[in-house]
Design goal:
about 425 residues, alpha/beta, Rossmann fold, 9-stranded mixed beta sheet, 6-stranded parallel beta sheet, 16 helices, about 45% helix, globular
Length: about 425
């Protein structure tokens, strides 16, 4: 593991008990059940609830409606506020209706800890209301949103305006927090540059839900999704669009090199991939499943001989740590990815997969080589699963977060 994973100033110490009964609120800007922010916050929330804490998770409304919706999932109370704005606003944390409803909801309740996942208005404004009512405020930093990150990927006028707002508010909100969890060393260091001291920072990498995603037999996934049992299948999941071109070109190359290969995706549908495969007449061997619930993800991943994670060395990726990496490890399959950021370092150091150059030809060849060498692929899959269980499982990570809360609360209450 990287040296700074866990509490930055007390690395790898055993978690101390904060005592059961903390009232914890997590805030996500993504639609309930979808997106990286929701999956990250829910994965943590379900573990904290399992430790005996009272845990609420506010997520954006998945379907429009005029009444609040509360669902209990693994002891976590997931709350969606009334909202009738378009899904793009709701999922982006930009809906004024959602933001105001959350602020009103929090103003009538008391929490010991509020953990805000990123800085969008639907997260940060309600979080500040809760902080003014005495709650400890922890910010989670999982993406670099401003001009050095996601904003640089936007080309439209509206996108640039939103990016300018992110660039202004992202660092200011984080400075206001009592503590900060960062998904990568790059964001941990950037938080230090904002003046946040080490004792108020921790690294919280992308975790693995090893109890929800298990290494199932390939036949289980392939039967469920009506895929040929004897095919060579490469699977890619996720919602981030930053390497869509590399994904599309690599998938086309794989299908061209191996006539028995199939490509399967879940998460965001890629029009570029669909067009690229169609132009080459390979569409019959592409299956795009779209968004699937977390409960179904293990069957999607079980279909794979190889899991593909294009991850080019660009600014937006250097700060990130894809949530799907934890899913891939948990699934116990061979992984092909690139050398970027914390992810590339982990794969290289612990031999968790195969690292390829950032071009579709090399990535495709590495995938096809693993199709041919089943013994090597199986061994890489076993190593990946063991690493997930020993180092990145969400139970272990949540214990570190629990300790972090306790340390911060000791200071906060005095």
């Amino acid at each position: 593991m990287p040296a700074r994973v866990g509490l930055s100033s007390r690395r790898y110490h055993a978690p101390s008990k904060t005592g059961v009964g903390l009232r914890i609120l997590l805030l996500s800007h993504n639609l309930a059940g979808l997106g990286g922010s929701y999956m990250r916050s829910f994965s943590l929330a379900r573990q904290l609830a399992g430790f005996g804490h009272s845990v609420h998770l506010l997520a954006s409304r998945r379907a429009v409606g005029v009444r609040p919706v509360t669902t209990i999932c693994d002891k976590v109370k997931v709350v969606e506020m009334p909202d009738i704005t378009p899904a793009r606003f709701r999922n982006g944390g930009l809906s004024p209706l959602d933001t105001l409803a959350r602020m009103s909801w929090i103003s009538r309740r008391s929490f010991d800890v509020i953990h805000a996942f990123d800085h969008r208005p639907a997260v940060s404004f309600p979080a500040l209301v809760g902080r003014n009512r005495g709650a400890l405020l922890v910010c989670d930093w999982a993406d670099l949103w401003g001009k050095d990150g996601i904003a640089s990927e936007r080309g439209s006028v509206g996108g640039r305006l939103v990016g300018a707002g992110d660039d202004y508010w992202e660092p200011r909100f984080r400075r206001s927090a009592d503590g900060l969890s960062a998904i990568s060393r790059a964001l941990w260091d950037r938080a230090g540059g904002l003046g946040i001291p080490e004792e108020r920072r921790m690294i919280l990498p992308a975790g693995a839900n090893v109890d929800l995603i298990r290494p199932l037999a390939k036949s289980v996934g392939r039967s469920h999704y009506d895929l040929p049992q004897d095919a060579h299948i490469v699977v890619s999941t996720g919602f981030a669009p930053y390497d869509e071109d590399l994904l599309a070109e690599t998938m086309v190359e794989i299908l061209s090199l191996d006539l028995n290969a199939w490509a399967v995706t879940s998460g965001a549908r890629s029009p570029r991939l669909q067009r690229a495969v169609g132009r080459r007449g390979l569409h019959a061997r592409l299956r795009m499943l779209g968004s699937v619930p977390l409960a179904d993800l293990e069957r999607v991943l079980a279909c794979a001989d190889v899991l593909l994670l294009p991850y080019s060395r660009k600014l937006v990726n250097l700060a990130r740590f894809p949530n799907r990496f934890g899913d891939y490890l948990a699934a116990g399959r061979a992984i092909v990815t690139n050398r970027t950021g914390d992810l590339g370092e982990l794969v290289a150091r612990h031999q968790l997969g195969v690292l390829a150059e950032e071009n579709p030809v090399d990535m495709a060849r590495k995938v096809v080589d693993l199709f041919k060498d089943r013994q090597r692929g199986d061994e890489l899959g076993r190593r990946a699963r063991t690493f997930a269980e020993d180092h990145l499982n969400w139970t272990t990570l949540a214990k570190g977060v629990e300790r972090f809360y306790g340390d911060l609360l000791t200071v906060h209450r005095h």
